[in-house]
């Protein structure tokens, strides 16, 4: 069964696929996913963290083709730095 955080991340991603505004869609998806991981790690919901990581790995099939601005890159890494229990994820 998919928990609420995973469902929210999935619905957010698919919603963005259906909108006309596709600017920075990779960043928006990664940002949303990494924030979900950060919040789930705060309550030690490792299962949700791992599900979001798995989702990201399945959706981002060619990471080498993603181009993020330096600013967006910094935002993502700043959030990752706040993830707790990283050794369990």
Provide structural commentary:
This protein has helices at about 5-20, 25-40, 45-60, 70-80. The chain has four helices and no strands. Helix 1 (about 5-20) runs antiparallel to helix 2, helix 2 runs antiparallel to helix 3 (about 45-60) and helix 2 packs parallel to helix 4 (about 70-80). It has about 90 residues and is an all-alpha fold. The radius of gyration is 13 Å and the shape is globular. Helix content is about 65%, strand content about 0%.
Number of helices: 4
Number of strands: 0
- Strand count, sense and closure of the main sheet? none
> Percent range for helical residues?
55-70%
State which percent range the strand residues make up: under 5%
Cα-atom Rg, whole angstroms?
13 Å
Structural class: mainly alpha
Question: What is the string of SSEs from the N terminus onward?
Answer: HHHH
Low-pLDDT residue spans: none
The outline comes out as: globular
Termini, distance in Å? 19 Å
Mean pLDDT: 84
């Amino acid at each position: 069964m998919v928990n609420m955080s995973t469902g929210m991340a999935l619905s957010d991603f698919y919603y963005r696929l259906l909108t006309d505004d596709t600017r920075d869609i990779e960043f928006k998806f990664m940002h949303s996913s990494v924030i979900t991981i950060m919040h789930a790690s705060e309550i030690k919901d490792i299962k949700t963290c791992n599900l979001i990581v798995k989702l990201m790995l399945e959706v981002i099939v060619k990471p080498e083709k993603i181009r993020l601005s330096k600013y967006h890159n910094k935002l993502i890494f700043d959030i990752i730095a706040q993830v707790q229990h990283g050794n369990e994820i």
